[in-house]
Structures are given as structure tokens and as C-alpha cells.
Model the fold of this input.
Amino acid sequence: MKAIMKVALGAGNVEVRDIDEPQVGDGQVKLRVKAAGLCGTDLHILKDEFKYIPPVVLGHEVAAEIAEVGKGVSGLEAGMRVTTETYFASCGQCRYCRSGQVNLCLNRRSIGSRVNGGFTNYVIVPAQNIHLLPENVDFQAGALTEPLACVVHAVTNTPTVFPGDVAVIAGPGAIGLLTLQVVKAAGATVIVLGTNADEHRLAMAKQLGADHIVNVQKENAEQLIADLTVEGLGADVVYECAGAEPAAQHLLKLVRRRGRYVQIGLFGRPIGWDVDQLVYKELVATGTNASVPSSWIRALQLMAEGKVQTKPLITHQFEVTDWKKGFDTFEDKTGIKTIFYPAS
Ligand SMILES: [Zn+2]
Ligand SMILES: [Zn+2]
Done:
């Protein structure tokens, strides 16, 4: 079967290789991949900016059909439509594993970076990682369960938003557009910020329920937010989803005293950020790393209820043999979300 693989350490070293179909082990499930989302992490692995063990099949955002179940697996059978959590293994013994914060286990190994992932025909995962896709969620929409689970974790596991809040989201990429919908579902008024390069993404934000969209290179967000908030004090909560220094600085201005600052995007380097504002404004600042099992359940519920739409975010679709074209859509920022299918 053809697979998009990181074949060696160092920048580059991604290619399509022919590998053997994997065998299912005890307690595991063999998935026939139907759609797999391209993520920033895959790009970071391409550029050698994220830990991985080569040679490894990339891709961790998987929607699939169960092909086969291993010994000792109950409740799952061939043909079921599913998605899978990404941790292939965690130590199970550390403070984090025991507290249900598996995402923070120092010894976790995830598919698509340390264990073979989903940019191919078949992938093996532990049975406990499987979630059934709701009937109204097809494979394409289902492939975005993983990024949605990450967003749900970011927004809810440390509670960041409350009904009646005015929330500002910077960066209308896939993560920003998912954050918008989760925050909206929590009962906030949502303003999405972008730049000239984001015009079509801002339009998408509006379509997905943003109360206001602002191109910060053309319009003044400060005035709008002052008009929308009690006594013009500023936003109750701000989410940085762009991984852009100017956005992080801007949000620090827009958030009110005693407000909440949530960092979801990655900058990939230290940035200039005025930490004194945490003091003056008594801000609560939180970050977020991947997801926990409970955020998958909530993500699927939001999709089942139609409160979050993932499919409109898909702008490009390729077979794995066209891996370069897919990765390029990310690099040149033409797309929002790119999906890979197994080679036909
Ligand atoms: Zn991802
Ligand atoms: Zn652990």
C-alpha cells in the first residue's frame, strides 16, 4: 500500500513509499482509512520541527471503516464507521496519565509521528482509541474530529468562556474557525480577526456563525469591541489561533481587565509579548496541548448536534500519491483544510 512517509531525520525526507499492510494485534483494531486530514504537525515533521521516529507514516486525523478487530476486542466490528484518538501508547503510570491528562504524558507515542499513521490504506490503533462517527457525520467531516477535539480541550477543559461573554478570535484558519464555533456554542458573542490574506477565511467565519468579522488591516477592532462590551471595557476572553506575534500583541490590548487570554496557535519561536499586562490587567492566561479522551466525546456530540460544521473547512482533497500538492496548499496558504485519501 502507498503511504506518505517521513523516511529519515532532518528537514525534507518525505516521500510516498510502498509498504506492507499492517497486521492487527490483540486489543487492537485495523482501520481502512477513508479520509485523513493534513495538520500543521505534519508540516512541522516535514521541516524537522516536531519529534518523530522515522521511517513513519504521517497523518493522525483519521476517519475510517473498521477492517478487522484483534483478539480481546469487544463492541467493535468490521464495517463500523469510526475515528480514532491519536495516542498509540502512553505510560499509564505517571502523574498525568493517572489524572486523565494523557496529553501531557512524557512518554506518549502518537500515530503519525512515532507510530505509523493514516496517510495510507490501513492503520492499526488500540481499540480503546476508537469513537463511532455519528450518522450525520461523513468520513470527510469525521476526519476533522481530531482538530475539533483539540479545540474543545482548549476552550473547555480549563473553562475559558461563559454565556454572555464577548470573545475575540485571532486567526481564521482551520483551528480558528473551529474555535469560533465551539465558543459560539458556549453562548458567547464572537468576533473573528484576520488580515488582508484572510478575506475568504473571514467570509467563511461569518458563514459559520461569527457575529462580527474584522480585517485588522482595514478596520479598527478596538472600537467595535468597545461598542459591544459593558462600559466599553473590552473582550472577556481572547483566543490566539494564528501563531502570529502581532495578533498576540493585539489581543493583549483587546482583552479587558480580569479577562482571559488563551494561546492555541504556535509561534515556533519566542515572541515579544508584554507580560506586564498580565499584572496590570490581572489576566488569566492559559495554553493547551492536543486533547484528552473526554474532549473527543464532546467534539463528536457537537458535530452530531450540528453545532459545529467541519466539512465547509475542507478546501482541498488529494490522493496520498499527490502528497506534495497537498502539503503545498498549506505552505502557500491557499487552503483551509486539506484531506488525503488512500491511493485508488
Ligand atoms: Zn492535528
Ligand atoms: Zn504517562
Notes: Residues 2-147+291-341 form a domain with the Quinone Oxidoreductase; Chain A, domain 1 fold (CATH 3.90.180.10). The chain has two domains: 2-147+291-341, 159-287. The first helix runs from residue 40 to 46. The chain is about 25% helix and 25% strand.
